Amino acid sequence: MQTGIYVSLAIYFVAMLGIGFYAYRSTNNDVSGFMLGGRSLSPSVTALSAGASDMSGWMLMGLPGAMYVSGLSSAWIAIGLIIGAWLNYLLVAPRLRVYTELAGDSVTIPQFFEQRFADNSRLIRLVCALVIIVFFAIYTTSGVVAGGKLFETSFGMSYYTGVWVTAGVVVAYSAFGGFLAVSTTDFVQGCIMFVALVLVPIVALMQLGGVAPTKAEILAIDPNMLSLGGASILAIISAASWGLGYFGQPHIIVRFMAIRSVKEMKTARRIGMSWMIVTLIGATMVGLVGVAYVSATGATLNDPEAVFIFLSTTLFHPLISGFLLAAILAAIMSTISSQLLVTSSSLTEDLYKTFCRRNAESGELVLVGRLAVVAVALLAIGLAQNRDNSILSLVSNAWAGFGSAFGPVVLIGLFWKRMTRAGALAGIVVGAVTVLVWIYGPFTYQGQALSSLMFELVPGFILASLAIVVVSVLSPEPPIQLQQLHAQMEAKLDADLRS
Questions:
Q1: In this structure, is residue 463 part of a structural domain?
Q2: How many domains does the chain have?
Q3: pLDDT confidence band for 176 (50 / 70 / 90)
Q4: Which residues contact 362 (CB under 8 A, 6 or more apart)?
Q5: Rounded to an integer, what distance in angstroms lies between the CA atom of residue 334 and that of residue 60?
Q6: Crossing angle, helix 318-345 and helix 159-207, to 10 degrees?
Q7: pTM (2 d.p.)
Q8: Which of 195, 144, 220 is nearest to 394 (CA)?
């Protein structure tokens, strides 16, 4: 059985490395080509790349595991994510695509903020780069940890071997192929995830005899498993609030900056949202059907987060099982590669070029970007040596950090021309600090940590938004050229959508 699984995984690894080599040969050796693919992504690649880089291993392990334990009450995370992703496509994507091009052809989010608010002091860029490095170090570590645990539990390898293999393959195609390689592999990985999350629950459902016997089995285990109302109001708000984080995730919204044309954003939105809805439904079904299957067959499942792995290796031929397990690797690697490239871009453009070598040539910056990919990966490997790290905890901390620090600035900055440099800086700092204090501060309520009562993204997003509005209103109006730039963005957006 293991031989068939290894054959499928070997094919998957060769395909990813082949895409990386192709992208290396096809990408222009300049900053825009390496970090943004020359703004040439098709709607389908944009959509599936955004989706795959968003949905890390938690979609095939964390969410099914939560459904396995708690039932439909855990689906509020998925509901919040769907709403947040749709609003991200609708509100942020088209404006960000146009605005970043007009604002000095910005290739990173910190660079866009600097241009948008005419920050000649470079302070916003420096603070943003530090936020990206800190939270993406945490985020990337979660993916590397997930890869190590997958290799350990599924393939009999050591955890540490799995960590190095996962990071090594991602670095190989990311460092050489750049944004084009990352986006193209994300597209392929998104397709693999889609097929896997449709196939596994359907086959398991058929093995149980259909919907009715499966439902009866679940209700016999726990009548509340199929109820959305099994959680408290605060728990529902915390779960659904994950959707707020979308507006500030650099590795997702950078895809919107790279699409060929803003008029193709509607097509990308339809593809992306269709993919997301189907895969999230599939992930929730894996958990629910898994409960019924384990109960009906008398099997033993020690780790609820391994329910997808259990069904994949139990119900299918080894070659198919290898393909399905590759879907987990696809989810993990697509997110890691996106995070590595965004962090590398920030280290190169926002720190190295801005503060060290302002006159660096394009080829030099691309080389620095590739070396930065390797450096960040090595840092993540170092942090991943603690195998007791909680994957979900790492992901939620980084998601909340980015959502609070960048989300309000992106959203308000794209719509409100009165927003000022001081307001943007206040929002970034307040959002990031609130999340860190909420998680790590010595504060409790009735003996409980604040993060256990409310997801830190909620207070972080609210306080950052208030800081932006209050400080902007109290600050002098932005220079006339910035107001003209905002008006130019709106005019071009309207013209592009009408063409």
A1: no
A2: 1
A3: low
A4: 29, 30, 31
A5: 13
A6: 130
A7: 0.83
A8: 144
